[in-house]
Amino acid sequence: MAAGAAADRRVIGLIALVHGLSHFFHLILAPLFPWLKVEFGLSYTELGLLVTVFFVVSGICQSIAGFLVDRFGGVPVLMTSLAMFAIGALLLGTATSYWQLAAGMAICGLGNAPFHPIDFSIMNARIRPARLGRAYAVHGISGNLGWAAAPLFLVGITSATGDWRMAHLGAAALAGAALVLVIWQRAALADRAGAPAATPAVSADPANNRATAPELPTESPYAFLKLPAVWLSFLFFAVYAFALGGIQSFAPAAAGALHALDPVTIGYCLTAYMVFAALGMLPGGFVAGSPDGAERLIAIGFGGAALAALSMLLIDWPAWMVPGVFAVMGFSAGFANPSRDLLVKRAAPPGATGRVYGVVYSGLDVGMAIGPALFGWMMDLGRPSLVWISIVVLQFVMIGCAFLTGSASRVDRTGTVAQSA
Question: 10 Å Cβ neighbour count for 40?
Answer without folding.
Answer: 15
